Amino acid sequence: MLQQTAGFAFETGSILSIEAAGTILVRSVEGTTTRCLWLENAAAPIALLAGDQVLFVRTNSEQGVVVGRVGVYSAPEASVPPKQLTLEATEVLSLKCGDVSIDLRAADGKLMMRGEDVLLRAKGTQRIKAGSVNIN
Fold first, then answer.
1. Are 13 and 59 in contact (CB under 8 A)?
2. Stretch 66-70: mean pLDDT, rounded?
3. Which end is more exposed in the chain, N or C (fewer Cβ atoms within 10 Å of the end residue's Cβ)?
4. With 90 as the cut, is the pLDDT of residue 81 above it?
5. Hey, how many other C-beta atoms are within 10 angstroms of the C-beta on 109?
């Protein structure tokens, strides 16, 4: 089905494959095949798969652009925090908020906390185990 807008024809089709270089091979409803690029248009990336129905526009006789996936709308589910979360990095993992940061460094095994005030609270015993403890 073609919808003419500003000289471009929007079409629907289905993804045949996604090539290693990222080009999307789309077959239109009429049966023609077009190599397409992807138009990034969402805050969160969309995972496309072979068989997905898409809306695309031909930019020339050989190439087009997929502008989105076509389907029935469903509102996103409410986000539920995971019971456990693991973040992993090979060299440095950093959490930052303004001038406050926590860095975990693989090279020297250091955990560094930086902030104007650092507060550690424990309902039970607060233990400090180290080879040595240096205060001030």
1. no
2. 91
3. C
4. no
5. 7
| Alpha carbons 30 and 108: distance in angstroms, whole number | 61
Where in the sequence is the domain holding 47, given as residue range(s)? 3-69
Regarding whether 8 and 58 lie in a shared domain, the answer is yes
Q: Tell which residue, 51, 49, 19, has the closest CA to residue 37.
A: 19
Same domain, 54 and 25: yes
46 alpha-carbon distance from chain centroid: 8
Residue with the two structure tokens 């233990």: 127
Contact criterion met (CB below 8 Å) for 36 and 63: yes
Q: Examine residue 127 and state whether it is found in any structural domain, yes or no.
A: no
pLDDT at 28: 92
Spatial distance between the Cα atoms of 11 and 62, rounded to a whole number of angstroms: 15
Structure tokens at 133: 């403890």
Sheet holding 92-97, edge to edge: 92-97, 100-105, 111-114
